[in-house]
Specification:
Shape: rod-shaped
Largest sheet: 7 strands, mixed
Mean pLDDT: 91
Number of strands: 15
Number of helices: 0
Radius of gyration: 33 Å
Low-confidence stretches: none
């Protein structure tokens, strides 16, 4: 809205800035899990603040923010789901999801990978008053009876059996065998049994001296 003076020439320049978009993809380990994860995308220029909430599963198509103005955005998976670890969150432009700089015409794809916890149950069997304990590395299992601990999927857990009070470790069964260290790859829920046995002390019968005849 301007007034053109007699004999004046006015040049008008129009500048257009191309919008960009943010794509969000969800990956689960193990693949194909049906668990749903919630996200929030906020940010952008003060004149056009974006605040989008959405949910994704591994099988779902990636989320598309639609065309949004260039600016700085923050993307977060919240709240974190119990029983899962957020093992990685990466964006295609090298930025972190909480600080995405969207340039004109740019498409940024951010991938969130979650790893499901798996459980390891150890059953300790004691025969003939045998006793012992089982401990794990990384920590979680440390018991002389039955116990269960959760580990992130893909974790390698090493179990060590320690006989006590003169007992003998007989061996593993379930996810392990033999009598050495038990190595369990937690690709799924696993069960291991450990057996301890105490051999009875031998019974000594004192020798008797016979009485001879004269």
């Amino acid at each position: 809205d301007f007034e053109l003076v007699l004999g004046e020439t006015v040049h008008c320049a129009f500048t257009n800035t191309r919008r960009g978009r943010i794509i969000v993809d969800k990956v689960t380990e193990p693949a194909g899990d049906v668990q749903s994860f919630e996200f929030v995308l906020v940010g952008g220029p003060d004149t056009d603040i974006v605040n989008q909430s959405f949910a994704l599963t591994d099988a779902a198509a990636p989320y598309d923010s639609g065309q949004i103005k260039p600016g700085t955005y923050s993307l977060a998976e919240t709240p974190l789901v119990a029983g899962w670890d957020l093992s990685s969150a990466q964006c295609s432009d090298g930025s972190t999801p909480d600080d995405i700089t969207l340039d004109p015409g740019e498409t940024v794809t951010c991938t969130f990978t979650n790893t499901k916890h798996t459980s390891l149950t150890v059953a300790v069997t004691k025969k003939s008053a045998g006793s012992g304990t089982v401990a794990s590395n990384p920590p979680g299992i440390d018991c002389g009876d039955n116990c269960t601990a959760e580990f992130a999927g893909g974790t390698t857990v090493i179990l060590t059996a320690a006989p006590q009070n003169g007992s003998t470790f007989v061996g593993w069964s379930g996810a392990c065998s033999g009598t050495g260290l038990c190595t369990v790859h937690m690709s799924a829920t696993q069960t291991v049994s450990a057996e301890f046995y105490k051999f009875p002390w031998p019974t000594f019968i004192p020798a008797t001296t016979g009485v001879g005849k004269k």
